[in-house]
């Protein structure tokens, strides 16, 4: 879905930017220039960033706890 119509930025591009290392809305904005024209997309762009960062953090938290085992 298009988030920023002025620059043609999609939610997929925002997610990809986060998966490639962006850690905040500010980083995504610098990378993709989203919300730099009219600004109407800023709220939706922030929502996509927030949701994606939450997904990434929860998946990393799941990996941080190794499966328990008992040594024989």
TrEMBL record:
Cofactor: [2Fe-2S] cluster
One GO MF term attached to the UniProt entry: metal ion binding
Database matches in Pfam families: Fer2_BFD
Keywords assigned: 2Fe-2S, Electron transport, Iron, Iron-sulfur, Metal-binding, Transport
Entries under Gene3D superfamilies matching the protein: BFD-like [2Fe-2S]-binding domain
InterPro entries xref list: BFD-associated_ferredoxin, BFD-like_2Fe2S-bd_dom, BFD-like_2Fe2S-bd_dom_sf
Start and end residues of each BFD-like [2Fe-2S]-binding domain: 2-50
Family of this protein: Belongs to the Bfd family.
Official protein name in the record: Bacterioferritin-associated ferredoxin
Taxonomy of the source species: Bacteria, Pseudomonadati, Pseudomonadota, Gammaproteobacteria, Pseudomonadales
